[in-house]
Amino acid sequence: MSGSRAAVRYAKAVLTLAKDQNAADAVNADMKSITETIAQSTELDQMLQSPVVRSSDKKVVLTKVFNDANVNTYNLIDTLIANKRLALLDDVAQSYNQQYDQMRDSQIAKVTTAVPLTEDLKTAVLAKVKELTGKSAEIENIVDESIIGGFILRVGDIQYNASIANKLEKLKREFTLN
């Protein structure tokens, strides 16, 4: 994250304000929408980063794209425009989501599998994450056929790789060393 210290400060301020107004959940949904939309649209990201595009034009685009956002989200956009920091919008949104999860004592568990997870497996993974970390989690399933089978679980700083591709790589290393 470029300018991450500033992004963290903006996110903290918005979270504090949203909590005071009982709108933290709605703003969190807006922030997730912002990060997903920017990740999917290189044009939007380039427009936000561009010093050539006027701030008023950026604001018009953002209000049309996020037309049902919470008042606090619009106020954040206005503040970032006023402070000439709109390029930080994606970083602020990501930081807000992280701080919101910490506030709720929750986290994101990224599970990479060769095929999409079933509901039974999601339940088992959530139970394992709760057992390992003591915190609840949301599952983000990433499908990557290159792992062949098994799964890779990432929660915060913890990674557990039980993929077939990883086991094959370990075998390959063993045979090349001997």
Automatic annotation (TrEMBL):
Localization in the cell: Cell membrane; Membrane
One Pfam family of this chain: OSCP
Primary localization class, coarse: membrane
Bilayer topology term: Peripheral membrane protein
Source superkingdom: Bacteria
Keyword Membrane (UniProt): yes
Cell wall biogenesis/degradation as UniProt keyword: no
Key words, A-Z: ATP synthesis, Cell membrane, CF(1), Hydrogen ion transport, Ion transport, Membrane, Transport
Family statement drawn from the similarity comment of this UniProt entry: Belongs to the ATPase delta chain family.
Physiological role: F(1)F(0) ATP synthase produces ATP from ADP in the presence of a proton or sodium gradient. F-type ATPases consist of two structural domains, F(1) containing the extramembraneous catalytic core and F(0) containing the membrane proton channel, linked together by a central stalk and a peripheral stalk. During catalysis, ATP synthesis in the catalytic domain of F(1) is coupled via a rotary mechanism of the central stalk subunits to proton translocation.
NCBIfam families cross-referenced by the UniProt entry: ATP_synt_delta
Protein name: ATP synthase subunit delta
Source organism (scientific name): Winogradskyella maritima
